[in-house]
Write a structure and sequence with these properties.
The chain has helices at about 10-25, 55-70, 70-90, 90-105, 110-115, 115-135, 140-155, 160-175, 180-190, 200-225, 240, 260-275, 300-320, 320-340, 345-365, 370-400, 405-415, 420-440, 440-460, 465-475, 485-495, 500-525, and strands spanning about 30-40, 40-50, 280-285, 295-300. The protein is mostly helical and about 525 residues long. Strand 1 (about 30-40) and strand 2 form a beta hairpin.
Length: about 525
């Protein structure tokens, strides 16, 4: 019997892409965009330069990629270590079981039983994360939630792909249908010199359409897996998560600990101090540096400090498991306040979760050595995901060092010359989608493409708003399968989903979204829309 043919490991796929990128540096002419002063102001202009063929650099791409993606890599390691400590307490297992038991009780109602409680739960989770992606550009933050929602999906009878969809896919569909995302819409509209967040009404319509399609797609897939789990591409790999289900390996003993009360006292004292230092928080929706951003002044930290006091005491009297879940809840709430109120990024978020992990360890009466050991075990468990992020970053390094990334962008833009409005907006859309495979950063892509696309859209009589919608769609959809995205690779690594299996599953969905995106682009050139 012939040996079973195995699909290449994710690392091999990415390394092959690094080699392919290095080969391109030998044949693609070099180029770069430079700032040039004109009567209209400073603009980016493409200039030819000598390309830099990459040879031995192919093997140093891992080191450089690791350095380039160091922030996300450290973020993953800290998150992995923190959640390993929390998982050791079985608090998340307790929370999932309690949540599922209460959710099942809703099936007593005929209406809920007809539409399915699980469908309501998953639909709401997808909608919430889609809103986060559309409003404040949630992307890297999704990595922290994958480790929570994958076990939840498994416990509900689904697979790890469903778990990834609940958070990563949901947030990036929201990212594509951005309404107020400062990292894409805010930067793009600023560079294109159009009013910040104008065209809000049609973008909101697009957001709801894209989110609805996502919910339907995920629920239909989840229904198929629930009916026959072996149809899942991840059936064998998900054995890892199924073995971690509560009750299979050990019985959970609910108990109160003195240490958990001490942790409560320390956290509460810190929150009270911060409530006095930051009595008012400016929650910003949009670019915080722009005067037109939506701002709300709220006593967010004093409110959270009060809620933590009210909720913690009854939970502490029940079991330290529920108190640790409360710490997790308020970690998430402070994450939202930090991102929207204080412009936190991965360093602050990683620090927040790191503190959560330490607090969880102390609350279950673990010694300092035991907590340290658990953190190291968690970091070691997640290390393959962190390493593959560095390897994926090597693709960008090779293209940048080879001086060909700007040439690829310039030639793509040249394709649109001499075409009509519909064809032009479609070409912009395709170009942005292709560029996103190489440059997954929405902010970087906006900085590169807007100075070129904006004046070109004026020449052909195309609305700059239509061009920006083409940018945001092209930026969001292909995020879901580009191997250059450290966030995607990190999320898949944590979920233990091999890239080739994810690609096979997500490709039809991305194609559907790309077609839908083109259809949603047509009204921007064929209809008179508000703000366009």
């Amino acid at each position: 019997m012939a040996a079973t043919r195995k699909f290449p490991h994710t690392w091999l796929i990415i390394f092959f892409l690094i080699i392919l990128s290095a080969v391109l540096t030998w044949f693609v002419p070099g180029g770069e965009y430079v700032e040039v002063e004109t009567e209209a102001g400073t603009q980016l202009e493409y200039q030819r330069v000598d390309n830099q063929p990459q040879t031995w650099e192919t093997f140093s791409a891992f080191f450089k990629g690791f350095k380039k993606q160091s922030g996300i890599i450290i973020f993953i390691l800290m998150i992995g270590g923190a959640f390993w400590i929390m998982n050791h307490s079985k608090a998340i297992d307790v929370g999932i079981l309690s949540f599922l038991r209460k959710a099942r009780k809703l099936e007593r109602h005929k209406f809920m039983k007809r539409i399915g409680v699980d469908n309501v739960i998953m639909g709401l989770i997808i909608f919430v994360f889609a809103v986060f992606g559309a409003v404040f550009g949630m992307s890297e933050e999704t990595i922290a939630f994958v480790i929570i929602l994958v076990p939840l999906a498994i416990s509900m009878g689904y697979d790890s792909i469903v778990g990834v969809c609940l958070v990563y896919v949901a947030a990036h569909v929201g990212f594509a249908g951005a309404v107020l995302n400062p990292f894409t819409i805010g930067i793009a509209q600023g560079l294109a010199d159009v009013p910040l967040f104008s065209g809000f009404e049609y973008r909101l319509f697009c957001f709801f359409i894209l989110t609805a399609v996502t919910i339907i797609w995920v629920l239909l897939y989840a229904k198929k897996i629930k009916k026959n789990p072996q149809k899942s591409l991840m059936y064998e790999e998900d054995e890892y998560w199924r073995n971690r289900k509560t009750g299979e390996n050990e019985e959970i003993k609910y108990e109160r600990t003195t240490a958990s009360w001490i942790v409560f006292g320390i956290i509460q004292a810190v929150l009270i101090i911060f409530a006095f230092i930051y009595p008012d928080t400016t929650m910003t929706i949009g670019d915080p540096e722009h005067a037109d951003s939506l701002r709300m002044h709220l006593p967010a930290i004093p409110i959270l400090a009060g809620l933590f006091l009210i909720l913690s005491i009854p939970l502490l009297r029940k079991s330290y498991h529920f108190f640790i879940l409360n710490i997790l809840l308020f970690t998430i709430l402070f994450l939202v306040v930090g991102v929207m109120g204080y412009q936190w990024y991965i360093m602050e978020i990683a620090t927040l979760f790191f503190a959560m992990g330490i607090a969880s360890g102390i609350a279950m009466s673990k010694s300092g050595n035991a907590i340290t050991k658990l953190f190291i075990e968690g970091a070691a468990d997640i290390l393959p995901a962190a390493l593959v992020v560095g390897l994926a970053g090597g693709i960008i390094v090779i293209l940048e060092d080879g001086k060909i990334i700007s040439t690829l962008l310039y030639n793509m833009a040249s394709i649109m010359e001499g075409t009509g409005k519909v064809t032009s907006v479609g070409a912009m859309y395709v170009i942005q989608a292709v560029i996103n495979i190489v440059i997954p950063s929405g902010s970087a892509k906006a900085a590169l493409t807007m100075p070129i696309m904006a004046p070109f859209s004026d020449l052909i009589g195309l609305s700059r708003q239509a061009m920006i919608v083409a940018f945001q769609f092209g930026d969001g959809f292909t995020n879901m399968f580009t191997p250059t995205s450290g966030v995607l690779i990190g999320a898949l690594g944590i979920a233990r989903v091999p890239f080739h299996k994810w690609f096979k599953w997500v490709l039809p969905f991305v194609i559907t979204l790309l077609i839908l995106g083109f259809l949603l682009l047509l009204p921007t050139v064929l209809m008179d829309l508000p703000g366009f």
